[in-house]
Sequence to fold (427 residues):
Amino acid sequence: MDDIIFGLTLMLVGMGGTMFTLALISVAVGLIKRLFPKEHRAKGR
Amino acid sequence: MVDAILNALTSLLMGIGYLLDHGLPNMVMILVSFLLFYLGIRKGVEPLLLIPIGFGCLLVNMPLSDVMDKGGVLKTLYDMGIINELFPLLIFIGIGAMTDFGPLLENPKILLLGAAGQFGIFITLLLSLFLGFSKLQSVCIGIIGACDGPTAIYVTSKFAPEILGAVSVAAYSYMSLVPIIQPPIMRVLTSKREKEIVMGSMGKGVSKETRILFPIIVTLITGLIAPMGLPLMGMIMLGNFMKESGVVERLTKASQEEIANAVTLFLGLAIGGTMEGHAFLKVETLIIFSLGFLAICFDTVAGVMFGKLMCLLSGGKINPLIGAAGISAYPMSARVVQIEGQRYKKTNYLLMHAMGANTGGQIGSVMTASIILSVLKGIQLI
Fold:
């Protein structure tokens, strides 16, 4: 594989893949937070 | 009798003779080890790493030293934990056990900044290819831009051990130079109005369940997408899982302290052992250092630019300065953001937001390395 094609492929797949994975984790964390919200203890005291 | 004494004395002077005849590169590297001591002791630059690295460098460059020969002490350490990538992975358990992902969990959107902060890896990779480095060497040089010492060591020891010394020293040196490298770039790329954006307060916290499930979810998602990176991500998340579970305090403490300390010492010494003058002093070493510097500059540029984009999309609620913290130099980069933010508005507290981006950068750097490894495997380059 040509060096330039190799570099550009890694850049596209690497950046795109990282962005996609982190976005997925971000969504998953959002869901867990909804499923397990932080308790608000001692409310109204 | 006299002959025997003379022979014995001559053998004692062989080292000095070697140094005078062929030892110029070794003498230079001994000076480099002194520089590393100076940086570690006087300037406080990553002393935990630079002191053992410097001493390993000193030992291996002493004339006729056999510390990196078969059976030598540094060679044994090298074989024990560098060549098989064990040491960086053990350090990752400690990093996971020390990292608080709380700020990131409070505002998971800023995880994306951790992806943008990896852009320098790829620009540097392209530059390295352009300068004639092999494909695998270029990948390893690019990984300096992850601002993540253990990841750089893990990848380089596996695929380009001949440049391990240069890549490791560059990675750790530039990580500690983040407070010098980043601020000018941040100032140039952001307007006064952007620098003064006050972000909402944090500190509401997240539930214990969220904290416990986070490392499991990250391991599952990243492992499915880039299985080649499982050792890296798995170890960080193992450390964090132990910490957040709260039931294995002894193991967590050992990972944070005893194991991390011992491995850091062994890792540093073994890396120093790769810095033998004749092998290390090459033009390519200087080029690697220059490329590493550029990598971190490009990371910062991309992080801040992505921060500006998020600022725009959020209607001005996100301060673009926190984008600079999307690299893995934790928590140094977050502190830089806090200081820069307060330069323009004294009441601005960006630290926790920047910490979130910074821990995102840790995950981002490991994820990028994992994806690169998986792609290399996919195209059968490794």
